[in-house]
Amino acid sequence: MTPENFTVPPKSEFGLEISYRPLIVAKANSRFILRSNELGEFIYMLELNGLPAVSARTLHFKASLGSDIVQTFKFMNYVKKQTAYTVRIEKIGAKIAASKDPKLPPIDFTVDNPTINAPPSDTHDGVEVPCNIRFEPSVVGESRAQLTVTSPEGGEYQCYLIGTSVVPQPKGPYEVAGKGVNIDFKNPFFEAHDFILRIDNPSFTSGAKSPLKIDGRKTINISVNYKQTPGHSANGRLTLQVGDLPSWTFYLQGKA
Fold this sequence. Notes:
Layout: E1 27-36, E2 40-49, E3 57-64, E4 69-77, E5 83-91, E6 94-96, E7 109-111, E8 115-118, E9 127-135, E10 141-151, E11 155-166, E12 171-176, E13 181-186, E14 193-199, E15 204-206, E16 212-214, E17 219-226, E18 235-241, E19 248-254
Parallel strand pairs: 3-11, 12-19
Antiparallel strand pairs: 1-2, 4-9, 5-6, 5-8, 5-10, 7-9, 10-11, 13-17, 14-16, 14-18, 15-17, 18-19
């Protein structure tokens, strides 16, 4: 209510503003009381109705296959004490909790922690709370999901997640000299696959044997060495390919 204390001049009116901010969907009754030393109490009954949010926000992500991107969804905590919020993600067409339970189907959107402990709010304006969401595509194309952040006391927030994945992007050049270099490569798929490894310049060699069987979502180190071969340049390419997908390309630069 604004203001909390006021004085009304003789034979005049005074307007009050009553603010209602429901945190949960529910109906409730309350009393509004005005007290005056001269006139006593005036009691008004209030019927309160907390309605569901009319719309959800949207976050857009874009990453190449084999990479990831993190964006932050921000929501407000209006509770006057530390409040635990549960984070879950529903893939469009199937409900999937944002956890590492191996029994649940995989999803391209994840959060680091399915529970967020929001700090208490000291003011009516609330306190802003971040929730980091990682998009790591497993297919080329579009992925859609819905993020829900909820608390029995703090209410519910929703956000649509739209991720777009493009073909793998070239990386490098990697300078190869002396003891060589290790190139990290992660299988972006949820299943194990055999990757065909090729190097287009005989001056570069690798201890990894093709095809490379890599478990789902696992990262391996590919060692590359360089020894100048007559008639060949000091530049090369290492590629990894699976199925009909475009290859992952790593540019190499030899240094004697």
